Amino acid sequence: MSNSGSLASLTRDFERFKRELPRDFPSLVRDTYRINLAARYLGRPLPHPIGKGSGQLSLNSGQLETDAEAGLAFAVLKTVIAQDAAGDQSMAAWAIHESKMKVERRGAGWTVTWKGRGWDRSFDEYLALVRAGRDLTRAGRLLAVPSVKYHLPRLDEAFRDSEYAYTTRALATAWRDAPLLLEKDFSPTLAGDALAEEKQQILRWLREVPQRIRAHGDVRLSMKLMNARFDDDFQAEMMKAAASADALVVFNRLFDSTAGVAYGGPELSDRNLRVLACLTPGASPGIPELSGTGDIHSGRMIVHYALRGCSSVQLHTFFQLPLEEYPATDGSRTQRALHALVFDPRDGLLAVMLEREAAGTLARRGGELRFLDLLPGEDR
Fold first, then answer.
1. CA distances for 243 relative to 253, 270, 292, 379, angstroms
2. pLDDT confidence of 380, banded at 50, 70, 90?
3. What DSSP character marks residue 368?
């Protein structure tokens, strides 16, 4: 099929799938357009690069089931606060009930604000959610990844290894299959806390947390990095300090110290992409696998993150827009979001990959365009 023929077919599919998005759309895309959307997160192969970031949209098994039915590639579970065997939590201030999320415009984009932080139910309930995610993962329907906020000490303090030990072992037991895929969340609200006022303190966490977690289980670890209240150079320094992780999620939301809330939107993607442009796996040996996050509202933005080294992306806000903001007329918000992100004939992922092929900046291999070929330094 010619490039112009592909674009015409894409327009037809975009209209057709407004009513119902095929669950296995990556296979349809490969058969129809010879475009391979395969991606990866934490070394695991994904059918496409789009996942859901940790938060209020991944805190019960019903949400995970809806996402699996929609064809989402992966979902990171709501962040649980680590505890020791007695149930004590040094980071208990983050285990507070969420207020209602507010979806609102911010500049030319959208953001979601809320006052809450991490998991506020019992640890046993979280382990039940982990087991539900495990079953979906084993069935090949959706990759589910638990998320944890562990103790972060001051420079002159020791790590509370009892929390690391108990929480990591309990999660590994619930998951059963080794290795346990795990995301360590450096929350955006941490950026507004006094704990994060010292650069050397932050760098110590990033260097030492991976070994603290791995000491208690066979863990493949991703670190979700916050946007610290320092300059771009420090963001790059944070990535280098966290290089012993298996993957990095870059970067969590910005923090508005006046309003006391984290936020996203164009300011977030501008900063994230600017930092990543200076430091990618292809240009900077030693940087682990990257997963992009921040203001991802189109396939074009997914490509921007991929061109800076991200082999997957995590969204949150785009799954919460008012229904009238999606071009699809039926389906769950997850289905409607995937329809727009992949099939939009101007800014969808397929359209942008075809656009790059026409411009000579993305070539077919074995007759296919491949999403992972967008990444700099990707092995050919």
1. 21, 23, 16, 20
2. very low
3. B
pLDDT tens profile 127-157:
999 999 999 999 999 999 999 999 998 888 9
**Residues in contact with 149: Cβ distance below 8 Å, sequence separation at least 6, in sequence order:** 79, 80, 81, 82, 91, 94, 118, 184, 185, 187
**Alpha carbon distance 154, 156 (integer Å):** 6
Which pTM value belongs to this model?
Answer: 0.93
Which residues face 223 on adjacent strands?
A: 184, 248
Give the closest residue to 378 by CA, choosing from 4, 10, 40: 40
Structure tokens at 81: 């606060």
What per-residue string of b and e applies to 3-18 under the rule 16 or more CB within 10 Å gives b?
Answer: eeebbeebeebbeebb
**Residues pairing with 262 in the sheet:** 255
Contact by Cβ (8 Å): 47, 36: no
For 203-308, list the strands marked E by DSSP.
Answer: 219-224, 247-250, 254-256, 261-263, 289-293
User: How far apart (Å, rounded) are the C-alpha atoms in residues 268 and 234?
Assistant: 16
pLDDT confidence of residue 148: 96
Give the residue-averaged pLDDT of 286-296.
93
Helix H or strand E segment including 234: helix 232-241
**Cβ pair 362, 375 in contact under 8 A:** no
User: Which residue segments constitute the domains of the chain, with CATH numbers given?
Assistant: 40-343 (3.20.20.70)
Q: Which residue has the higher pLDDT, 88 or 5?
A: 88
Name the residue with tokens 């983050």: 94
Contact 111, 317 (CB under 8 A): yes
- Give CA–CA dist 248/243, Å, rounded: 8
Q: What is the pLDDT of residues 322-340, one digit of tens each?
A: 999 999 999 999 999 999 9
What value does the CA radius of gyration of the chain take, rounded to a whole number of Å? Answer: 20
Report d(CA 372, CA 365) in Å as an integer: 11
